[in-house]
Amino acid sequence: MPVARRGEIWLVDLGMVQKSRPVVILSVAFLDHERPVVTYVPRTTLLRNTRFEVPHQARGFDPGAFDAQGLGGVPVTKLIRPLVILDATTAQRVEIAVKSWLGLT
Predict the structure, then answer these.
(1) Which of 102, 98, 78, 94 lies closest to 7, judged by CA?
(2) Which of these, 2, 26, 28, 85, has the minimum number of CB atoms within 10 Å of its CB?
(3) Does residue 89 fall inside a structural domain?
(4) E-assigned strands of the chain?
(5) CA nearest 28: which of 10, 1, 9, 5?
(6) Beta-carbon-side half-sphere exposure of residue 36 (alpha carbons within 13 Å)
(7) pLDDT tens digits along 10-20
(8) What is the spatial distance between Cα 12 and Cα 39, in angstroms, rounded to a whole number?
(9) Pick from 82, 74, 69, 12: nearest CA to 38
(10) Which of 9-13, 16-20, 39-43, 100-104 has the lowest mean pLDDT?
């Protein structure tokens, strides 16, 4: 079973409509007796320049952003492969955007 860690960018199978795409893992590690799911924020290249998008540019990626409005969860069986670890500054900005989207700030 794949082990995804908070702050890692993974390629994930999001089904036929959304296809496979990069996501940043937002959830903490689950314990053996807990559900094997991860919470993620998807990366998109279809930018709308909203307050919930966090721009992301890195080698190997087309220009894009993490979209906090796309927050979701999937079982770990949908994880395809790890890509990179998100830099700390961008990870913090993603957390702020998610909190804002959920009204937690």
Answers:
(1) 94
(2) 28
(3) yes
(4) 8-13, 20-25, 37-44, 53-56, 64-67, 72-75, 79-85
(5) 5
(6) 10
(7) 999 998 777 89
(8) 11
(9) 74
(10) 16-20
- Domain assignment present for residue 69? The answer is yes
Residue 92 belongs to a domain: yes
**CATH code assigned at 76:** 2.30.30.110
Letter for the amino acid at 85? I
| Average pLDDT, integer, range 93-105 | 96
Number of structural domains the chain divides into = 1
Spatial neighbors of 59 by CB under 8 A, at least 6 apart, are none
Residue 30 has pLDDT above 80, yes or no: yes
State how far the alpha carbon of 98 is from the alpha carbons of 15, 35, 36, 88, in Å. 23, 22, 22, 15
Residue 2 lies in a domain: no
- Unique residue bearing structure tokens 């955007």: 97
Domain carrying residue 23: 8-102
CB-based contacts of 30: which residues, under 8 Å, 6+ apart?
A: 36, 37
Residue 50's pLDDT is: 97
